[in-house]
Design a protein that fits this description.
Layout: E1 2-3, E2 8-15, H1 19-27, H2 29-35, E3 44-50, E4 57-63, E5 71-81, E6 85-90, E7 98-106, E8 109-117, H3 121-129, H4 135-147
Antiparallel strand pairs: 1-2, 2-8, 3-4, 4-5, 5-6, 6-7, 7-8
Length: 150
């Protein structure tokens, strides 16, 4: 995980699977829900709606014992190029990031670059203290999922 600027966070990880399989794990709700929530946080993904296409939308609803009520995260897909790139805008509030994920295959392995651009430094700081903290665990869970699919 690397903080590229006051507004940017970048995480890179190589997965031992071809790009089309890694892309499916990011774009098919039935697979995405298996790895996206870090198991250690005690959170549950109650619903996972994803229309992964340019102009499509997503809505993820989470619950946690510490939450008064379920929490929803939602937004739109700005650009989707199958097996290559997904760009989405997090729209649940005005501090949401623009997230770009790229998939670069080389010799049957795929380098995933996860890039988030935040509107303010405070929004990035909040992400680093919260959800971004779980990215290494999320990627480890994705690795486990892909090991069973390649």
């Amino acid at each position: 995980m690397e903080r590229k600027s006051d507004l940017e966070l970048v995480v890179k990880r190589t997965f031992n699977a071809p790009a089309h399989i890694v892309f499916e794990a990011w774009s098919k709700p039935e697979l995405f829900k298996l790895w996206w929530v870090p198991k250690s946080v005690g959170m549950s993904l109650l619903s996972c709606e994803m229309d992964v296409r340019t102009g499509g939308a997503y809505r993820l609803v989470f619950s946690h014992p510490d939450f008064d009520r379920p929490m929803a995260f939602f937004g739109t897909y700005r650009e989707v190029t199958p097996h290559k790139r997904i760009v989405w805008a997090n729209e649940e509030n005005d501090q949401g990031a623009l997230t770009t994920v790229t998939f670069e295959e080389n010799d049957g392995k795929t380098l995933v670059t996860f890039h988030e651009l935040y509107p303010t430094t405070a929004a990035l700081e909040e992400a680093l203290a919260g959800s971004a903290e779980g990215l290494p665990e999320q990627f480890a869970q994705l690795d486990e999922l892909l090991a069973g699919r390649s």
